[in-house]
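User: Fold this; tokens only.

Assistant: Input:
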Amino acid sequence: MRRWLRHPGLGSRYLLYSLGVHVVAGALLFVNLGPMSVQVQQTEPPEIVHAVAVDQEEIESRLDAQREAIAQAQRDEERRQQEEEAARRRAEEERQRQAEEQRRREEEARRQAEAERQQQQEAERERQRQQEREQQRREEEQRRAEEQRRQEEAEQQRREEEQRRAEEERRRQEEAERQRREEEERRRQEEERRQAEEERRRQEEQQRREEELRQRMEEEQQAQAAQRAQARAVNVWASRVRDAWVRPPGTAAGLSAVVRVRVLPTGEVTSIEIIESSGDDTFDRSVRNAIERASPLPVPDDSAAFRRAGLDNVAFRFTPDG
């Protein structure tokens, strides 16, 4: 059975064969039992027992024969399978022998091809070594020729370098002499320019000082003139304010107040500020009222003179009893 499992085809054939044998045996049994059944119905009871016994023995004998036939068939099938297995093994061994023989032939061919390839490679390497030696020889000859050429060029360059250095030394000396003369000329011109620049700066400094002195004198003169103009304007304004002032009833004599007024170039008063009170509010208010009544105050016709005198913002002391 294990062999049948390993060979499904053989197991199937044996199974069909066994089923066929059992079918034949069953048919024979049915045929034999049929007449016996009829015979049992037709004979007397004692004879039926005998016939059944006889038929039973015959059936057993036939079954034994069938079982022997089946066993023989099984033995024949096993022998056939054994022969087929042996034939298969011989065929497999022959196939393996032929494959091994083929492998040995291929291995031998491969070794021969490898030997030939190595020989060819060795020949190629020898040819390359020969070419390399030839190449090295040519390169050595070229190197020697190149070395000879470099030596000749070096000698030529040495001579040219000596000539160049001699020429450069001559040019250097000439250039040094030219630069020395140019430097002397440059220093002379520089000295002349320096002296001229110093003279120019001295004159400019002298002019600047004279101009500053003149400006200071003018500024002092203008300041003095502005002070005089402001003093004159303040005296005039104080006189105008005294004329416009009305003494408040009960005001003590000798009171005074310092007033700051801001005036337009037209003389119009725009602001009045008591910066030092008299101590009497009524007197202070009367001074403010007098300045308002005196506006516009007399100013110079020249607006520049008005600004120089500082008349746009003036503080003065108003003393009506002074």
